Known about the structure:
The structure holds two protein chains of two kinds. Chain A is mainly beta. Chain A is 0% helix and 57% strand. Chain A starts with 17 loop residues before the first strand and ends with a strand. Chain B is of the alpha/beta class. Chain B starts with a helix and ends in a 10-residue tail after the last helix.
Amino acid sequence: xxxxxxxxxxxxxxxxxxxxxxxxxxxxxxxxxxxxxxxxxxxxxxxxxxxxxxxxxxxxxxxxxxxxxxxxxxxxxxxxxxxxxxxxxxxxxxx
Amino acid sequence: xxxxxxxxxxxxxxxxxxxxxxxxxxxxxxxxxxxxxxxxxxxxxxxxxxxxxxxxxxxxxxxxxxxxxxxxxxxxxxxxxxxxxxxxxxxxxxxxxxxxxxxxxxxxxxxxxxxxxxxxxxxxxxxxxxxxxxxxxxxxxxxxxxxxxxxxxxxxxxxxxxxxxxxxxxxxxxxxxxxxxxxxxxxxxxxxxxxxxxxxxxxxxxxxxxxxxxxxxxxxxxxxxxxxxxxxxxxxxxxxxxxxxxxxxxxxxxxxxxxxxxxxxxxxxxxxxxx
Lengths: 95, 275
């Protein structure tokens, strides 16, 4: 229950959930198997998932400021997100 | 008991693959992680289908644990090394389980599956079959398991350590943020609990922080060594991670894991809650 569900398309109630989702990219291609963590406004760990074969990740958060940080064999990436109720899509690039 | 007795680095595991008397066990919630590639020779335990009673909410009983170990080819004298995804959350939960049933030699692989993957170490898709055993479990060791009544009666007296994220502690969210936020429990925390998230005990690659860092962490947060301790989270696996740190790495006494955790506590009628 606390582990990562399969990342991909499932039915989500975007009327109540604050969904933060997107893809991890590196060198022009999505990164599969990257670890993506969601940090709260104080930089504290909230959750972590592993990207799908298409490089996708998804979190169910709450409205507010969050930070996404990815960790993969190819390197690290980071991005700030100001989330609202509904779907918040973003791309996380590993330089 | 010291760190070297209960924790092994990934290098050690890679050097000892295939050793007699050593059984690697991967513990995941999502069994597809194992099926997509596991450490060579490792057997799989599913935290839910293998380790939970199929009917009521409880861990499996002694005879079911014996059958499970026997079927997986794990013997009483084997050294069991556990690892898994989610920064070893469920591996730590299984570790606590092995201790509940009295297994002598059990260890965690430091960093778990994440560290192994980030290092680019090899994974295998081969089917792993081990000859069956006649495993004999001990009676459950309830000195490391807390139940709800003890949690309520410990308010204001024990170290109640809530290891969830700050946003779960404050009631902003009800579950780790990779899960839909649709649980029926009341949000918040047990009154007088201190919030020391499990994640503060781990490095970003999933390995545990040093003993010195860990000792300082709990001391700074108001942990009182003279009191008994109950750790809880949402369903009991992240608190197993902290239970492992407190009892197995730091050697603290009288530490229990409340595996009922917030899913139970937040649903109880009439118990006090703080936000």
